[in-house]
């Protein structure tokens, strides 16, 4: 346990640095946005973890009771999080959050506090209303297998792509197909590569080295995932994509688990008038974790994940394989993450879409999960 | 256009015979099916007269070149064989006078997916393919049998589904949807099952939106725990039931080497088999009875040793088809297709015309410059009688490996090599028997 703690905290510090570097390298956003968005993004990843694994929202309480192991698994990371944050002096409110989290206290109390901080930060709705909203979200997720996220403005096509990619990463991690989050894996992978490159002269090395991870499998899975993400980016640049499916296990017609990201009701707009991606992501993941859609106390077997996306017939995308005969499986329970914009914005744009011209595309690579 | 529609027409004293046209659409094509159908109709209107089965792979139209891999007129040879044998050469098929059944399909490139029964079990209990599968493409054409076995099987399953569609009372007229293929090893029983499933999923594409082919690993049904085997069988069939529940799917269940499952009961009576094995057989039989009630399932089984199969099982099979080693005609056809392939790949070069058995027959086996090689091939075919289909298919490979050893070879030399390879095979076979 202590070892893990140690590692976690070191890793997170490095993450901060890496994240910054990454963003400056890759992001195509404007210079002025960069510093803003990078802090915002970071907050999101941290907040995700906090709310996913230890925010005392009703859903996770349930989980805790059923499966104490889960909490154990998470706690070192969470502690290390607080260390890093206080050390780095990132954000005081966040640290406060964590105190709430770590303090074993009355759950109702906690909920109010957490919700209070988050809502006052992001949306500014009164605390009471947020609580009832959250309860509604949890109820829906549990009974209908559906989470609704309503953005208060327009979003960009790029944004949609980011949403889908982040949800995919999150689904893979939460459904136990990846042993760590995507970002952690990438970081460890790079570190591992750097260390093996320096002492290359040794020659043959056992595949299982530090951390007990099988690096070859790790690399393969990451490669597959990156490939899928790349393909998704291409598809989003070529076509409007109203729906995306993540098909886990089994076959495409009879999967074990099925997740849908539904973006039919999103109002798209490029440029100035649209919401910032980071703000949307934060709202999206907050809702997602409050709803507790993805956690399941039972251990999950390793599966292959196939990504299907609805796209325009004539978009001319290369990598994806068109599946004209594909029908969304009805025999399996489908968990829907529905993204929408305020109804006033969305209605004007719905009329001109001809759904006949939208067909399912299957990503050319499947992602095989791995654990250790 | 769909098969059910065509069957409905037949009582209306419409003498037009169905001609099946299979249109393989490229896997990256996004064209609407109705559009493809339109263009194929136009193509067939332009070339409305064909001699026997024919396959277009190159088109004079951009749309077809872009979206369609091949258009094939298939399975007319049996008809030619039975009804028009004598007038075959003089009477080509006029497509305009026939009912055209155009089947449009794309191949699924994903490999098999596995069905696991137990959570921690690495070994999969069954493999399932989504049909039409790329892996099974071309098997049907490569199988050569005498006496229209392939067509009979096809007709059998078509009738099965037709009866179910018409809601024929199965208590009055019983049919079981179970096919048993038996015969010596290497005659292509398993391949035939796969090909049949592929063919039917294409033929029925108007009725069922996709096909599923489930191959059960029968050994995986025996548990290491006493008394658990029966439950495994039940679990397996539950999984299959899930597939069947989707009424859009046509499900084929293949139980290969079925005697390993059903041979047990007699042995158990003799005391050489634990009683657990009996439970497996009983469980399989009752489960089969369960799933055969559904109209969208066909159970295909194969066996090498028919005597050993449980009588109760044999009784359940509607068709018990013997698949024997190929006749001389069959062997000749197999060799012919092998040589065509080698000439296509330019391993046998230069290309030379070879006649089919039918053409040789009409020429009266007269030896001439053009028919010389064909007659040599026929002699080799006659000599290879008794070899199994599996051996025949690998013979050209063996001939090249053992006696050719150069990148390209003339047909004459290659036939010589094949002749020697056949000798060697027969010798090996004789040795094997002597040892035993």
From TrEMBL, chain A:
Protein name: MAD2L1-binding protein
Domain of life: Eukaryota
Annotated GO CC locations: nucleus
GO BP terms in the entry: regulation of exit from mitosis
PANTHER family, alphabetized: MAD2L1-BINDING PROTEIN
Species the sequence originates in: Chanos chanos
UniProtKB/TrEMBL annotation, chain B:
Organism in which the protein naturally occurs: Chanos chanos
Pfam families, per the entry: AAA (PF00004), AAA_lid_TRIP13_C (PF23242), TRIP13_N (PF23563)
Residue ranges constituting the AAA+ ATPase domain according to the UniProt record: 175-327
Job description of the protein: Plays a key role in chromosome recombination and chromosome structure development during meiosis. Required at early steps in meiotic recombination that leads to non-crossovers pathways. Also needed for efficient completion of homologous synapsis by influencing crossover distribution along the chromosomes affecting both crossovers and non-crossovers pathways.
GO MF terms held by the record: ATP binding; ATP hydrolysis activity; identical protein binding
Location of the protein in the cell: Nucleus
GO CC field: chromosome; nucleus
Any single biological process term in GO: spermatogenesis
Protein name, entry field: Pachytene checkpoint protein 2 homolog
UniProt xrefs under PROSITE patterns: AAA
Family: Belongs to the AAA ATPase family. PCH2 subfamily.
Principal location listed in the UniProt entry: nucleus
Keywords: ATP-binding, Differentiation, Meiosis, Nucleotide-binding, Nucleus, Oogenesis, Spermatogenesis
Residues annotated as signal peptide: none
